[in-house]
Amino acid sequence: MSENEWGREEGFRRGENQDREEVLSADVAGDDGDEAGLRPRRLDEFVGQTELKEHLGVLLDAARARGQTPDHLLFAGPPGLGKTTLAGIVAAELEVTMHVTSGPAIERAGDLAAILTNLADRDVLFIDEIHRLPKQVEEVLYPAMEDFQLDVVLGKGPAARSIRFDLPPFTLVGATTRTGLIAGPLRDRFGLVERLDYYDPGELQSIVERAAGILSVLVDSEGAAEIASRSRGTPR
Known about the structure:
The chain has 236 residues and is an alpha/beta fold. It has helices spanning 3-14, 17-32, 50-66, 83-94, 109-116, 135-147, 184-187, 201-215, 221-229; strands at residues 73-76, 98-102, 124-128, 149-154, 161-166, 171-176, 192-195.
C-alpha cells in the first residue's frame, strides 16, 4: 500500500471527524433546543401512540433479553408528533448514545462513512427526513444496515480498489413525513415501520399537564384542556 493510499484509509478509520461534527452538530442543536427538558426519556412517560408503544416495547424487551441491538426502526407521520422523541427513548431505554443527523445534511457517501465509523457498539443513529438521502448515500447504507459493514472505494479508474470495514452493531432509526418517497430497498431493511397518528384532546391535555409540572407552571385541568383544544392534534 502506498503512502497516499494508507493516508486515505486512515482517514476513514478516523471517521473524518471534522466533517462528521459538521454533519451531526447542526441538527442536534436545532432539534433539541429548549424543548429537551420536556421530552419523555422513557417509554412509559410517552403519552399517546398506544399501539406503537406496545410494538416498540416488545421489540426493546426482546433485544435486551438477547443482549443484541433491536431491528432498525422507521417512524412516519406529520411533523410534531414525537418521532425524534421516540428515537431518544430508544437510546435511553438501551442505555446507549444517540447520534442525530438528517437526510439533507448527508450530501456525500463520505459524510455517512464518517458517521458510521465513529459509532460505538449498539449506538442509535437517528436520521431525520431520511427520505431526502441522496441515492449514492443510500447505497452505502444498505450493507451497513444489513451486515454492519462499510464498503469504501479508494482511487479511481483501473487502479481503484474496494476496502470493507466491519462496523459495530447499531440501530438505525429513521423519521419521515413522506413514506412514499423512500426507496423500496431502504424501506425493506427496517424491521419495524410505524406511523404516528394525531393526538386526541385527552392525550394532549395530559401532555400539557406534564409539561406544566416540569416547568413549575400552575395550570388547572380546565386551562390544560383549553390549550389542548387549540393544539391541532400535535403536542408541539
